[in-house]
Fold this protein.
Amino acid sequence: EDQVTQSPEALRLQEGESSSLNCSYTVSGLRGLFWYRQDPGKGPEFLFTLYSAGEEKEKERLKATLTKKESFLHITAPKPEDSATYLCAVQAVGLAGANNLFFGTGTRLTVIP
Amino acid sequence: SAVISQKPSRDICQRGTSLTIQCQVDSQVTMMFWYRQQPGQSLTLIATANQGSEATYESGFVIDKFPISRPNLTFSTLTVSNMSPEDSSIYLCSVKTGGEQYFGPGTRLTVT
């Protein structure tokens, strides 16, 4: 069964304490893996799209990587404003609807000053 | 990128009534989507709305309950019909452009 699993569910970091969020997926025919940031009461904010294993993308303190089974969102020296829920989503040939984004349940990140 | 606005931002509705949510995009886009995010859960695709064709609904969602209009390349509406408390959720409009997919701010619906 196609699945997207994010871990951990919640993560508390001290300001400046680097860490990684994980998104593992079991889909056939991956077309793209997406990372979003969602603040409370707001819609998801697009961060990255990764298309193939080995691909990496960076934006400020965030770096996303992709393997054939999982993706990592690395957060370097986080600041309190990085606190949010980070969502992973996949688009795959096998998923119902060629354009459907299948979302994980997210990792709720809290960065403590 | 794309800037998406939704109206209303939130509403409280009575059981049995209907609510129409509007989505406006700042540029012309072919592919537009409607998602639902129930409390404590992640996003689920309701339907894909492409201009000039009928909306395509995902399993578990039907046109009678969630009718969609897409009159042009910058606008769409989603109606939640005959509402029940189980329809309480955040409804999000989304567009795909340039290989990237963007979301609106969402409409928070509470059904009493």
Q: What stands out?
A: The interface with chain A takes residues 1, 4, 31, 33, 41-45, 48, 56, 58-59, 92, 96, 99-106, 108 of chain B (CB under 8 Å). Chain B has one domain: 21-101. The mean pLDDT of chain B is 93. The domain at 21-101 of chain B is CATH 2.60.40.10 (Immunoglobulin-like).
